[in-house]
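Structure first, sequence second, as always.
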């Protein structure tokens, strides 16, 4: 592997670790900022959130940007590690809202199933695919994690993404971002990770 490729792989791996940490975190002081960039200067990112508020986020030393790329549900196979946001369906089962396919190096990170705030009653499940089934009604995944198992259906049109690199140049006004942030006692926000929309792929999480 060339030194350039080694550097790129190292940066991306570090970014993925920060991303997965942000996804897995569900402590009371974690705030997941979703919205569009209003401005980005130095270490300060200002986002107009989906709730219509303005969030000012201080980016920590060593912070990294990342993006996402489209993936196919057909690419998901037994043994893959995925993060799936799901909601209860009318038949009492679980339907996917979005699916993030982690690279093999991140397998096991943030493993579990817990409440998520993408939509009302949504749940995030980070788990290994035990079985991937295709039927006439679409796909379903059997996910296994420590202490549990969950079957989630994936309807046609559900966003399926995987991780991809980004640069500070991608943090332009109007770009859609997902920023897992920490809220201090004084209400200020800080983060070490910004997931930005790029090449037409916006963060669905």
């Amino acid at each position: 592997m060339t030194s350039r490729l080694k550097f790129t792989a190292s940066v991306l791996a570090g970014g993925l670790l920060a991303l997965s940490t942000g996804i897995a975190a569900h402590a009371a002081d974690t705030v997941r900022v979703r919205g569009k960039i209003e401005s980005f200067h130095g270490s300060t990112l200002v986002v107009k959130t989906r709730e219509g508020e303005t969030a000012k986020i201080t980016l920590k030393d060593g912070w990294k940007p990342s993006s996402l790329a489209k993936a196919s549900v057909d690419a998901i196979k037994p043994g893959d590690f995925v993060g799936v946001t799901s909601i209860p369906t009318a038949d009492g089962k679980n339907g996917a809202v979005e699916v993030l396919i982690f690279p093999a190096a991140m397998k096991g990170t943030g493993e579990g199933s817990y409440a998520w705030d993408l939509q009302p009653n949504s749940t995030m499940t980070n788990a290994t695919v035990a079985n991937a089934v295709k039927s006439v009604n679409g796909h379903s995944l059997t996910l296994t994690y420590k202490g549990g198992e969950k079957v989630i259906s994936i309807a046609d049109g559900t966003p399926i993404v995987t991780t991809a690199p980004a640069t500070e140049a991608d943090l332009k006004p109007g770009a859609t971002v997902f920023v897992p942030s920490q809220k201090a006692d004084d209400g200020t926000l800080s983060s070490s990770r910004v997931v930005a929309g790029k090449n037409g792929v916006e963060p669905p999480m």
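Margin note: The helical segments are 3-24.
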